[in-house]
Amino acid sequence: MAVTPLRERTRREIEQQAIVLFSDKGYLATSLQDIATAAGCSKATVLYHFTSKAAVLASVLEQPSALLAALLDEASQLPPAEAQERTINGFVDLGVQFRGLLNVLNEVIPSVLEIPELEGLVAAGDRLARLLAGSDDPEQIAMAEFAIHGLLGACRVEHLQYTEEQLRNLCVKATRRLLT
Amino acid sequence: MAVTPLRERTRREIEQQAIVLFSDKGYLATSLQDIATAAGCSKATVLYHFTSKAAVLASVLEQPSALLAALLDEASQLPPAEAQERTINGFVDLGVQFRGLLNVLNEVIPSVLEIPELEGLVAAGDRLARLLAGSDDPEQIAMAEFAIHGLLGACRVEHLQYTEEQLRNLCVKATRRLLT
DNA sequence: GTCTATACGAAGATAGAC
DNA sequence: GTCTATCTTCGTATAGAC
What we know:
By secondary structure, chain A is mostly helical. Helices cover about 75% and strands about 0% of the residues of chain A.
């Protein structure tokens, strides 16, 4: 148990290489052959460990998804005002931390409904908007969604010209302006 | 001249069907075969009129691109304060009018640098951010970019639940909050 | 000039040998 | 568990009918 079983080694290597390639070239521009070559195995081996290319993506997004879900669960149990505060800071932190993968997220959103493995993320997006909004006012929720898209776009495009700290401050400031 | 030449009929039909398909399923999920079938011709005919799939996209985006460029040219010649005002309203109008295609734009952005036909749009994005910002302050420009991404996302995701008027008001309000 | 027919390489995915 | 071989469909290219 202390030692990684052999059966998991290849799978992990595939996932790690996929993270690098997806962050670098994007999901669609990365082929199964690219992943296989980087991981030192064949295309068929990738599809043995993951049932499809979308399944590789889902696996790559598993950790950030879980962290987002945990944040939402935690914030849900706070009083409304604190919940909004916690959600803003936590979401910006997640966005900055996983900015390489946000690139991928944005890329895939248009067809996200056709990737069953990513349904959980869609649902999380709805919960996130409601918590950010801090109320059930439709306009406030729309502002929250505007903020989410702004953040995804900002982290994607500018992840090279700003430090993590600058990006975090910018996103928090913009989100507050939208939700006040 | 009053009558549409035959040579243009097929081309127009292809473009119209491409707009519908791109708006509905997205660019990447639409194949040349889909376009050809919808237009009532063969794949090769599509590629006779347009040199590649990317060229079809470029043609589809030609009108909104031209309108955006015209808006930026017009706003550039106004004094700073009016320029910002004009750019906000004009850009929101364009976003709402072509919201079906914004879907496509978002989808293609990650790899936009690899589609030569779309270089003009990238440059326009930079000009747009500077005009929206109304100054050369980097933070203000970052806010403008945040607003652009928010708008693209909002128009894309919510283009079914809101009327054009509601969407326009929402986007103007959000953009003002970010840029004030 | 306008189109159909056909072919090529690469993609995601599956079947079966080892 | 990993491979090779194979299937289908994609985007693209070209030859040639009308």
